[in-house]
Inverse folding.
C-alpha cells in the first residue's frame, strides 16, 4: 500500500506522455540524434547491431557483410543530409515536416494505449455507458402490398383494406410478409427509407402509403419487439477495441490541452 500513489500516477495520460516522450528522447540521442553543428558521426556496436536487427526483422535473415556495409553507408548518408538540412533551416515552414512532427507528438501521447487492456471494472463501466451502441435494434413482423408508382392507388387500397376489402395488387419479387425482421434485413429487401418509416406506423392496421426503392406500399405492422442489447460476454473484443479507440482520443486531447495551456497564443485577424 505504500506505493499505491505511484501505481495510480502511472495510469494518468499526462504521466504516460512524459514517460514515453523521455524514453523516445533518450533513444533518439542514443541512436543518432541530429545535431546540425556536430561534424562527427559515430556508430558504436550497439547501433550497428540495431541496424542489423531491423534488417533481420524485414528479411527474416541476418544481413551479409556487404549488406551491412550498405546499411551503414545509408545511415551515414541520412545523418549527413539531416544535419545539413537542419543547418540550412530547410525544416522551417515545411508543411510535410510539421505534419510528421505532429504525428510523432500524437504518438507519444497515445503510444501505450495500443497495447493496453482495460480492467474488468473499466470494461463493464464502458459497456454500461454505451449500451445503445451494442443494441441490435427492434425487429418487425409486417405485411405489405405493392402498388407501383401510383401513390393515390396505394392510399385508396389502405382505406379499402382497413374496411375489410381486398383490392388487387401488383406482382413484384418482394416478400409479402416478414417475421421478426431486423432493420438491416428490411433495408436489404426494401431499402433503408422503408425500414425507417416502419417506426412510426400503428400496430395491427394497414397504413401508408410507404415509399420503398420500388414504389408505394400499403403496410400492416403486426408486431414490434423492442431492441435487445448483446451481452458483454459475447462481444468482449469489440467493446475492448471501442474502449481503446475512445481512450486514445481522450488521452491525445488531454496531452494537447496540457501543452496548449503552456502557450501564449495571439492571433491578429485581417
Amino acid at each position: 500500500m505504500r506505493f499505491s500513489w505511484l501505481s495510480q500516477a502511472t495510469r494518468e495520460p499526462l504521466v504516460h506522455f512524459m514517460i514515453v516522450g523521455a524514453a523516445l528522447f533518450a533513444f533518439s540521442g542514443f541512436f543518432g540524434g541530429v545535431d546540425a553543428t556536430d561534424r562527427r558521426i559515430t556508430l558504436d556496436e550497439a547501433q550497428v547491431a540495431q541496424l542489423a536487427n531491423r534488417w533481420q526483422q524485414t528479411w527474416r535473415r541476418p544481413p551479409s557483410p556487404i549488406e551491412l556495409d550498405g546499411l551503414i553507408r545509408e545511415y551515414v548518408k541520412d545523418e549527413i543530409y539531416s544535419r545539413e538540412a537542419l543547418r540550412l533551416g530547410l525544416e522551417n515552414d515545411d508543411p510535410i515536416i510539421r505534419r510528421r512532427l505532429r504525428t510523432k507528438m500524437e504518438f507519444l501521447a497515445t503510444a501505450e494505449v495500443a497495447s493496453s487492456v482495460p480492467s474488468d471494472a473499466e470494461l463493464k463501466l464502458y459497456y454500461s455507458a454505451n449500451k445503445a451502441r451494442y443494441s441490435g435494434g427492434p425487429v418487425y413482423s409486417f405485411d405489405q402490398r405493392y402498388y407501383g408508382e401510383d401513390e393515390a392507388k396505394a392510399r385508396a387500397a389502405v382505406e379499402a383494406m382497413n374496411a375489410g376489402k381486398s383490392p388487387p395488387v401488383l406482382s413484384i419479387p418482394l416478400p409479402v410478409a416478414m417475421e421478426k425482421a431486423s432493420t438491416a434485413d428490411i433495408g436489404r429487401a426494401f431499402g433503408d427509407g422503408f425500414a425507417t418509416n416502419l417506426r412510426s406506423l400503428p400496430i395491427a392496421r394497414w397504413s401508408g402509403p410507404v415509399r420503398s426503392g420500388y414504389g408505394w406500399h400499403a403496410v400492416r405492422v403486426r408486431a414490434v419487439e423492442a431492441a435487445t442489447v448483446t451481452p458483454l460476454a459475447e462481444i468482449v473484443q469489440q467493446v475492448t477495441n471501442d474502449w481503446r479507440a475512445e481512450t486514445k482520443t481522450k488521452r491525445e486531447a488531454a496531452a494537447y490541452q496540457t501543452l496548449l495551456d503552456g502557450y501564449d497564443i495571439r492571433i491578429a485577424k485581417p
Summary: Residues 1-10, 20-32 have pLDDT under 50 and may be disordered. DSSP finds ten helices and four strands in the chain. The first helix runs from residue 4 to 9. Residues 4-105 form one domain.
